[in-house]
From TrEMBL:
Organismal lineage: Bacteria, Bacillati, Actinomycetota, Actinomycetes, Kitasatosporales
GO MF, any single term: diacylglycerol O-acyltransferase activity
Keywords from the named record: Acyltransferase, Glycerol metabolism, Lipid biosynthesis, Lipid metabolism, Transferase
Keyword Acyltransferase: yes
UniProt cross-references to InterPro entries, sorted A to Z: Acyl_transf_WS/DGAT, O-acyltransferase_WSD1-like, O-acyltransferase_WSD1_C, O-acyltransferase_WSD1_N
One BP annotation, GO: glycerol metabolic process
Main enzyme class: transferase
Residue ranges of domain O-acyltransferase WSD1-like N-terminal in the record: 6-249
Protein known as: Diacylglycerol O-acyltransferase
Keyword Lipid metabolism part of the UniProt annotation: yes
Catalytic activity: an acyl-CoA + a 1,2-diacyl-sn-glycerol = a triacyl-sn-glycerol + CoA
Cellular component, GO annotation: plasma membrane
Length: 443
């Protein structure tokens, strides 16, 4: 294993973290258990297998190299011990309650930034595993691959091997510098022009958008999680009835659930249209940073104030079409691309300010995390539910992550526990909104 520089967006995530706003993502997987000791056996397996997964041995260290001054590298930890990362907890009757408390704890930054918490069920017929990965170590897809490395092997079709490019030196050959200068200058000017273009499109697309107070909160550092399961066939019935995509329906469900939740708690939904950030992957097979975050995003106003469920879906669909027409490299959601144009030292010095500015940019994160269609197991125990969990930005009270696994959609909800003590009510609103859409489609 060799070290490599963090991609710019990874570096941004690493530096914007604070004690009250840890930048790790998570996944809570629930497994059926064959015996009351299945959880303890799963913990032993995870610890044994982690040692053989190279990506789980990688820590993050500061670097002061001339061309990456103030940056950081991902490098092997010579003192890696899986037992520092895999923890077995006491039996519990509420996996989500324990997961919420664990999600609020930052990962230790002097070790490879990941953890696996095994939660045996009090019922003796289930256990859960909460995986936590720092966003600087992995995005959703990369985290999935790391987690898959410690689960039972899965038979997948063979793929043709891809040629691996040799690592490039950070410093060019001095003898070639005179010939490289014109190209470097043109590249720098091109980068500046692209950054200005992204910035201009960001300003244009956010004109008229204003922060919403409905989902704002003073940071408490506490976390609460909840999960909702939806039948994918119900989602397809809605999509086939009104058009659009599955993702349009899933986002519209969030808008409707927010409306119902705000009205039920007495806050009211009139005039509420929170800005949702919808991350979009820019990962390519031969990217220069294969392990790094390559993200852009779409920014859309959620039509919470629209009373008609099909009207809400239509508004979401239209907003997504506009974003797709503009492309992930333009618009407000493309602000993440500006990370590529900020020097490493700028990320180090400005990271905390960027984290605080997230509240001015969007009100709620709604992200989709891909999962394989194949059944996953740990120690022969079948994975029956899996809830992706996203980090909370400063000043925001709720984040929604969505995954589809084996015919069911799983909504993973993360909230500030003090700002949203009734997260279970919002979870019930998600289920109710799906039913509302189904009824509306039948009329």
């Amino acid at each position: 294993m060799t070290s490599d520089l963090l991609a710019p967006l990874d570096l941004a995530f690493w530096n914007m973290e604070s004690d009250r706003h840890p930048m790790h993502l998570g996944a809570l997987g629930v497994f059926g258990a064959h015996s009351p000791t299945a959880g303890a056996h799963a913990a032993d397996l995870l610890a044994a297998r982690a040692a053989a997964v190279p990506g789980l041995r990688m820590r993050i260290r500061d670097t002061w190299q001339p061309l990456a001054f103030g940056g950081a590298t991902r490098e092997p930890d010579p003192d890696f011990d899986p037992l520092n990362h895999v923890r077995l907890h006491a039996p519990t009757a509420d996996f989500q309650a324990v997961a919420g408390r664990l999600m609020e704890r930052p990962l230790e930054r002097d070790r490879p930034p990941w953890e696996a918490h095994v939660l045996p069920g009090e019922d003796g017929v289930s256990f859960a595993v909460l995986f936590k990965f720092h966003h600087a170590l992995a995005d959703g897809l990369r985290a999935l691959r790391l987690a898959a490395g410690v689960l039972d092997p899965v038979d997948v079709p063979d793929r043709a091997p891809r040629a691996v490019e040799p690592p490039r030196s950070l410093l060019p050959d001095v003898r070639k510098l005179p010939g490289l200068v014109p190209g470097l200058v043109r590249g720098a000017l091109s980068d500046v022009g692209r950054a200005l273009d992204i910035g201009a499109s960001l300003v244009r697309s956010t004109l008229g958008m204003r922060p919403s107070s409905a989902l704002a909160s003073a940071p408490s550092g506490t976390r609460r999680t909840a999960g909702v399961v939806v039948d994918i066939d119900d989602v397809h019935r809605v999509r086939k009835s009104v058009g659009g995509t599955v993702n349009d329906v899933l986002i519209a469900v969030v808008a409707g659930a927010l409306r119902r939740w705000l009205d039920e708690r007495g806050d009211g939904s009139a005039g509420v249209a929170p800005r949702a950030l919808i991350p979009v992957s820019r990962r390519r097979p031969r990217t220069a940073h294969p392990q790094g975050n390559r993200l852009s995003g779409y920014l859309i106003p959620l039509p919470v104030d629209e009373s008609d469920p099909l009207g809400r879906l239509g508004a979401v669909r239209a907003a997504m079409v506009r974003n797709k027409d503009a492309g992930p490299n333009r618009g407000a959601g493309a602000v993440a691309l500006l990370a590529d144009h900020v020097p490493a030292l700028g990320h180090r010095l400005g990271g905390p300010l960027v984290g605080q500015a997230a509240r001015l940019w969007f009100d709620i994160l709604v992200t989709s995390v891909p999962l394989p269609g194949l059944g996953l197991r740990l120690g022969g125990h079948e994975l029956t539910e899996v809830y992706p969990l996203a980090p909370l930005a400063p000043g925001q009270s709720l984040a929604v992550a969505i995954s589809t696994y084996r015919g069911r959609v799983h909504y993973g909800l993360v909230a500030d526990a003090q700002a949203v003590p009734d997260l279970d009510r919002f979870a019930r609103a998600v289920t109710a909104e799906v039913e509302t859409l189904l009824v509306a489609c039948e009329r």
